[in-house]
Design a protein that fits this description.
Layout (H helix, E strand, L loop, with lengths): L1 H23 L6 H28 L7 H20 L2 H32 L5 H8 L4 E5 L4 E6 L1 H24 L4 H18 L3 E6 L4 E6 L7 E6 L3 E9 L7 E7 L2 E4 L12 H23 L2 E7 L5 H27 L8 H25 L18 H14 L10 H33 L2 E4 L2
Helix pairs in contact: 1-4, 1-6, 2-4, 2-6, 3-4, 3-10, 6-7, 7-12, 9-10, 9-12, 10-11, 10-12, 11-12
Length: 454
C-alpha cells in the first residue's frame, strides 16, 4: 500500500537521524525520554490510522479533528518555547527528541495500515482487479438527482497523504539534516511546497435540476477553492486540441454563444511517466468526465482542433501564470544562494517556516488574478468576521519572526540591527518567493478560465 510505505520510510528516516544525533552529542540521559516518546507516538499512530482508513474508504479530503489540531499546536509551541529559552548546547538534543514522537506516529500509522491491508487481501481476484485501476473516475448518483464525479480512492488518496508527509519532511530537513544553510533551506522549502500544493482532492458536483456545475478543490491554508458554474448559457461541451502538439495538449470547455469556460487541467490530465499512456489515460478520463457532464446537463459533444492563435484566450493566461510562478521560484532560489542565512535552527526560523505556509497561497491567488484576470474567483465561503483567516495569521507570524531578533539588541545601532536581522529576513523572502511560485503553478492547473465571445 503506497500510503503505508511512505509513512514507514519517512518515520524510519526521522527516527534514525534523531537517534544518530543523540548518540553523536553523547546525550544518553535523553534515551529514556526517547523510548517513552517512541511508545507514545506508536500508540497515537495506531489510533490516527483509523481516521486515515475512513478517509480512504469515503474518498474524501482529510480534515484534522480538533483534538489533533490542539495536540499539534501544543507540540509546536513546546518546540518554540525550547528554542527561545534553552541554552545552545541543550537545543540540539531537545530537537532530536522532539522529532522522535512524529517519527513514531508515522511508523504506527504505517504498521496499522499494513496490518489492515493484510487482512483485506482475502477478497477475490475480480475485486482486486477492479480496485487496482487508479485512472477510473467514481460517478455516484444521489436521490436528489445530484451526480458526484471524483477520482478513485487509489487515484488521489496516496497523493493526499504522501503530500502531508512531505510537508513535515520539509521542516525536518531544515531542523535536522546537516547540510550547508543554502542547500538546507532550498531542500526544506522544496519539500514543503510540494506537499502543500499536493495535499488536495477534487470533485465535480453536477446538480442537474439547478443547472449548476460545482467544482471543489480541497486543501490547506487557502489552497482550497470552489467554483459554482451556471450551465444554462452553454449549449455544448467541447474538447479542443492544440494543432501544434499533434493533439497531445487538449482542454475541455463549456461553450455557448457569448462565453466559454475552460475546465481546470487538474481534472482532465493525469500525470504519467509513459507518454503514450498519458495520452490514453487523459483521453479516457476526459471521456468519462465529459460524458457525465453532457448527460446530466444535456449538452452537445464537440471535438475541434485550433492553432495557437485560436487558443490564445487559454494559452496566454496559463502561460502568464506559469511564467509568474517560475519567476518567483527563480528569485527565491537566487536569494537563498546569494545572501547569508541562519546557520542553526532558531525560534524565528521555525516560526517563519509556518508563517510562509500560511500566507503564500493567498498571495499566490492575488498575483494569479493580476497576470490572468479571466481566472474565475473562488466561491468558497469566507470565514466569519469573528475568525482570522490563514493569511492574516501567517502575516502576524512572519512579522514576529522578522522582528524577534531585534528585541534583544534594542541599544545597538540601526545598521547593526539590520545586519543581525538580515539572515532571517533573507530566509523569509526566499522561502516566501519559492512558496508563492509553487502555489501559482498549482493554481494554474486548478482554476477555470472564463472568456467572453464578441
Amino acid at each position: 500500500m503506497p500510503i503505508s510505505a511512505n509513512f514507514f520510510f519517512a518515520g524510519l528516516l526521522m527516527l534514525m537521524v534523531a537517534i544518530a544525533q543523540l548518540l553523536s552529542i553523547g546525550e544518553t540521559n535523553f534515551l529514556a525520554v526517547s523510548s517513552l516518546s517512541l511508545l507514545v507516538g506508536f500508540a497515537i499512530g495506531i489510533y490516527v490510522a483509523k481516521s486515515v482508513v475512513n478517509v480512504c474508504q469515503q474518498n474524501s479530503d482529510y480534515i484534522f479533528p480538533r483534538t489533533q489540531l490542539i495536540g499539534i499546536s501544543t507540540y509546536w509551541l513546546a518546540l518554540i518555547a525550547a528554542l527561545s529559552t534553552s541554552p545552545e548546547n541543550f537545543i540540539k538534543g531537545f530537537v532530536a527528541i522532539w522529532w522522535i514522537l512524529p517519527a513514531a506516529i508515522f511508523i504506527g500509522i504505517s504498521s496499522s495500515l499494513a496490518f489492515r491491508s493484510g487482512k483485506s487481501k482475502k477478497i477475490d481476484k475480480k475485486q482486486i482487479l477492479e480496485t487496482v485501476n487508479a485512472d477510473v473516475l467514481n460517478v455516484v448518483t444521489y436521490s436528489d438527482q445530484t451526480v458526484l464525479v471524483s477520482p478513485s480512492s487509489l487515484g488521489q488518496q496516496p497523493r493526499q497523504f504522501n503530500s502531508l508527509v512531505l510537508i513535515l519532511l520539509g521542516f525536518f530537513f531544515w531542523s535536522m539534516i546537516d547540510l550547508s544553510p543554502n542547500l538546507r533551506a532550498i531542500a526544506a522549502i522544496s519539500l514543503t511546497t510540494t506537499g502543500l500544493t499536493g495535499f488536495f482532492t477534487w470533485q465535480a458536483q453536477l446538480r442537474a435540476p439547478e443547472k449548476v456545475l460545482q467544482l471543489r478543490f480541497s486543501g490547506l491554508w487557502g489552497i482550497a477553492a470552489e467554483y459554482a458554474i451556471n450551465v444554462k448559457p452553454f449549449s455544448c461541451l467541447s474538447v479542443i486540441k492544440l494543432q501544434e502538439s499533434s493533439g497531445e495538449l487538449s482542454w475541455m470547455q463549456l461553450s455557448g454563444n457569448n462565453s466559454d469556460i475552460t475546465i481546470p487541467l487538474a481534472m482532465t490530465i493525469l500525470p504519467s511517466t509513459n507518454k503514450d499512456a498519458t495520452n490514453q489515460k487523459a483521453s479516457d478520463q476526459n471521456d468519462e468526465l465529459g460524458q457525465a457532464i453532457r448527460e446530466e446537463f444535456r449538452l452537445a459533444k464537440q471535438e475541434t482542433e485550433r492553432d495557437s492563435l485560436g487558443m490564445a484566450t487559454v494559452l496566454l493566461p496559463q502561460g502568464a501564470g506559469i511564467l509568474a510562478g517560475t519567476a518567483f521560484i527563480i528569485l527565491g532560489v537566487v536569494l537563498l544562494f546569494i545572501f547569508p542565512l541562519p546557520t542553526s535552527l532558531s525560534a524565528e526560523s521555525a516560526i517563519a517556516w509556518l508563517g510562509v505556509c500560511l500566507v503564500s497561497p493567498a498571495i499566490a491567488r492575488f498575483f494569479l488574478q493580476l497576470v490572468a484576470p479571466n481566472s474565475l474567483q473562488s466561491d468558497r465561503p469566507s470565514y466569519s468576521k469573528n475568525h482570522l483567516q490563514s493569511w492574516e495569521i501567517g502575516t502576524a507570524i512572519l512579522l514576529i519572526s522578522a522582528f524577534l531578533p531585534t528585541q534583544q539588541t534594542a541599544k545597538i545601532a540601526p545598521l547593526a540591527i539590520f545586519m543581525q536581522s538580515l539572515p532571517i529576513l533573507t530566509l523569509i523572502c526566499g522561502w516566501l518567493s519559492i512558496s508563492i511560485g509553487a502555489c501559482i503553478l498549482a493554481f494554474v492547473r486548478r482554476t477555470p478560465l472564463w472568456n467572453t465571445n464578441y
